[in-house]
């Protein structure tokens, strides 16, 4: 089943099966490497890339049976502290203090919030009645409800708190941390994965075998199984008030990032005509 899934995603030839030679580590082989983000930030897609680049299965605190059985994530059901996996998915703070290294995936919060709302409100027709979908879509009408309003207010605050906590606490505990911007992964997956491999070698002493071959496979593959197909709604789903709130949390996180000397975020802020201050007449 693993080979069928990968060939469907990566193409028709075995040479493009980038996770074909991926393995689990033995008990205690690796320290805990956290792969953390807010929901909707592309964590599962990043796991695909990470497994392809390292040749080691990733893990998760969530133990999702479905992606273990259907999507080839063989490390999904391993205990998070088993030392058998590299890159353990976590949308919270549990086990942060036990981490040997942290990979922090940050995505534009406007896109993150929309993606997570789509996941939580995926229409049943897109999942065959199997529950929430990693790449599903909500009924467009849901973006015109108070559910959306409440969701944006809650999640925008959680977005900035999550990343602020990881950046500051990793610094306080001397845990190596690598920030990965989702948009950079989209633009050049190979470059970003190469930098992650360099980070893992420096942080935990891990060296991927057949590194050049693995990165070349990623370059030639189309890893779109966990990337949501965009469906334009035809209207602006973020009100001026929402936009101001999200712009504020972006600014706050950028300050934290600068204070800890990490590479600056891409330009995430959004400008709407109604938010532009009028020019005073002289």
Automatic annotation (TrEMBL):
Keywords: Transferase. Residues 102-223 form the Sulfotransferase domain. GO terms for molecular function: sulfotransferase activity. The lineage of its organism: Eukaryota, Metazoa, Chordata, Tunicata, Appendicularia. Its EC number is 2.8.2.-. Belongs to the sulfotransferase 1 family. It is an enzyme of class 2 (transferase). Gene3D superfamilies: P-loop containing nucleotide triphosphate hydrolases. It comes from the Eukaryota. This is Sulfotransferase. It holds the Pfam family Sulfotransfer_1. InterPro entries: P-loop_NTPase, Sialate-O-sulfotransferase, Sulfotransferase_dom.
